[in-house]
Design goal:
Radius of gyration of chain A: 23 Å
Oligomer: homodimer
Structural class of chain A: alpha/beta
Chain lengths: ~450, ~450
């Protein structure tokens, strides 16, 4: 009988994953069972293929979930991250291998012994970020270490962006992923990293002011702002003693300066509801955060208060931020209002393509000499369905799933793709799909 | 038999309160029972007076608390605010009048019907802020309204400060109250107020940049930063339609600009532990929040990044912020480290006196004319025990307690001192203790 692969979740990030599985179903003798709360979507993903079926599936129904997992030979969980743990526990009980692209939670980590005892693998963090970032970094780091080198610095940036051919607004940005996450990005405790042996902290309200400029071959000028916690990657990558480690998010140059205006005004705050959101206009919204000055224009007040450049003003004006357009949201937080304003102008249009950019910088010492290596990945989406995001999240999952089923990857317990046994074959096959890093020695 | 007044909590804010009660005990035929978890302190407050006793008292022990309240004729709760509700519920059950200086919580408000049914009063918010602020504001507001006037603007500022004669540091500030609260002041959701009919919001990271300069007769130049929620005072003061309402905290001029440096750096953040707090110096602490620049001094980096004036630099240097003095705190948050550094330099010295300053501005229209009235209170502490804070918190509580016991204030249910029946007699007697507002008509 064919190997039954259960894919739980058929949303945006599952398109390329499912296509890969269906494309390989005959050759590998697989049957792809696609469950999603949205039955139509699940059936669409199956596409009438005789080796696939889509069906309505409530993954939070314990009984139903147990039954589907029991019927399956292998499980791919593409659920929202917090639900993977439910699937993982079923998989231990029912002795099924399982894979998810999401971060390992402390709760998931605790399942390691049980998973080993059950003889199964729970593979995690094998999408794009986390996933391809881990694998591409470990390839270089292990190579350096094998040559007797010592890592001095690791910087890594990833961005989910708009492809150059669809980049037609002054922000050089469109929402290619969850807009809410973009609006709230960076909030919480200070960003933490290490630089030349010194711990450094950047509070949220300075995050977009302390960006690093990065030029990326072929796609131009970018900038990176620090992610929340770069420090944890020391242990994940076996770089406990590295003096400089920094992970960040990439945007096109100029984005952060304009975005910082929102942060400074307090527009990204999601912690309280504005008194009058229902009756306010975009212009009122901006003015709520500015000083009262009867005789002065909103544009003049904001420009003066934050010493805004023409470029930033152009970006803000592009969003109709100063227009008397009704916000039309009841009991909304500043973040919700900002999100709505941004979505109107930064949404993807038909035919727009997205782009994933990843850029690593490695400094290391070998034979008494310091060397620097840059490594970059650029993936452009095929279309609205098979986006760069879906490709880079889904293909590593799919390829790794195949290798686990085939026994080419034969590990037990809670795993990450940071070991050669995983990243080597997966990265090799990703190349066939154009997911390929270009390395440059810097002199 | 003498009326037994139970005072729960003999801490810093109870000194003047207890002195007043003891001073009046003979004339009023009272006996003052003072319970505190610190027995020595409770006995000290009783001072060997025959009409008072101090004893160890665990207010969180339900049985003990019930017994003490049962024995008493009247209860004064000076516990930390969150515990008043326990006392209030006992007082309803045991039919005893009770008074607290703290804010009414929603939970407390819900006890109104029960308190009325039990025939008792639960008087709240009758310290300084809340308390004297309410009473002094309502006196003016009711006077304006009685004359057919219409309130246009209410601004109110209070500060717990250092008296001019003890003001000997460049911050013009010392910790006269809980330092932790000072370090965390203003955090959370944006400050909200109304100006000329427009809702205005100031996020925490801009709070100390948007201060209002205020000159106060006889004590000099101050500045006020906005409190979290000015809007709720509309309903408390019956000013539902007022176009401008703003409440704030007072500091001496120049304080906020320097304090803002801490906020901008991220030093007041209490949400995460710094990696290396145990081994860092004050100077390392500052540098953790600054860019890495091998060849540049911390002083130069901070000065340049925030464009600091000589005055701000002098304030920072006064704190030994740039000295290689060990922080010596394990697993500390930035806020904890900052607090320790500040406490070393801004603590009260022997003989130092504190000062409470309150300043109101009322604009109103009467007979078609706009008028402006300023009202100010300055209270200087007697000494370290009978501080201005203890006087202004404790005396209104004590005076109001007397009037409730005497039947001069005869109300039931959950009450605030915003009605003439309360504020008139209390304010009149406060004058005898030098707690007196000076009013000025502004032309």
């Amino acid at each position: 009988m064919a190997t039954r692969i259960l894919v739980i979740g058929a949303g945006r990030s599952s398109s390329s994953l499912i296509r890969y599985l269906i494309d390989n179903a005959s050759a590998e003798d697989w049957f792809i069972a696609i469950g999603d709360s949205n039955e139509t979507l699940a059936k669409e993903r199956a596409g009438g293929n005789e080796r696939a079926e889509g069906f309505a599936f409530d993954a939070l129904n314990d009984e139903r979930r147990g039954k589907e997992i029991e019927r399956a030979d292998f499980v791919v969980s593409m659920l929202p991250a917090r639900f993977h743990i439910l699937v993982a526990k079923d998989c231990i009980r029912l002795k099924k291998n399982v894979i998810t692209p999401s971060y390992v939670t402390p709760e998931m980590k605790l399942l390691d012994q049980e998973a080993r005892a059950a003889g199964i693998i729970i593979m995690n963090e094998i999408g794009v970020d986390p996933g391809i970032d881990h694998m591409s970094a470990m390839e270089v780091i292990h190579k350096v270490q094998a040559a007797g080198g010592k890592m001095l610095r690791f910087e890594s940036f990833t961005g989910g962006l708009i492809a150059p051919e669809s980049d037609d607004n002054p922000w050089n940005y469109k929402f290619t992923w969850n807009p809410r996450n973009v609006v709230l990005a960076g909030q919480g405790s200070a960003a933490q990293f290490l630089q030349e042996g010194a711990f450094k902290y950047i509070p949220y309200h300075r995050l977009f002011q302390r960006v690093k400029p990065i030029e990326i071959d072929g796609v131009g000028q970018f900038e990176g702002y620090a992610n929340r916690d770069s420090l944890k990657y020391r242990s994940i990558y076996g770089l406990e003693d590295i003096p400089t480690i920094y992970r960040g998010t990439l945007r096109k140059a100029g984005y952060s300066k304009a975005w910082d205006t929102f942060v400074q005004l307090g527009m990204t705050d999601d912690s309280y509801v504005m008194q009058n959101s229902e009756t306010m206009t975009n212009r009122d919204f901006v003015n709520s955060f500015l000083i009262y000055a009867e005789d002065r224009r909103v544009e003049d007040k904001i420009r003066e208060q934050f010493d805004l450049s023409d470029d930033v003003m152009r970006k803000l004006e592009f969003l109709d931020l100063f227009e008397p357009i009704p916000v039309a949201l009841k009991n909304a937080t500043p973040a919700q209002i900002l999100q709505k304003i941004l979505e109107t102008k930064l949404e993807l249009k038909d035919g727009d393509k997205d782009m994933i950019v990843m850029w690593h910088r490695f400094n290391y010492e070998v034979d008494g000499q310091e060397r620097e290596l840059h490594s970059q990945l650029i993936v452009i989406g095929e279309d609205e369905d098979y986006t760069a995001m879906a490709q880079t999240v889904g293909l590593p999952v799919a390829i790794c799933a195949k290798m686990i089923i085939n026994g080419k990857i034969d590990l037990k317990g809670v795993q990450l793709p940071t070991i050669p046994e995983v990243y080597k074959p997966v990265m090799a096959e990703l190349e066939e799909y154009g997911i390929h890093f270009k390395e440059t020695e810097v002199k």
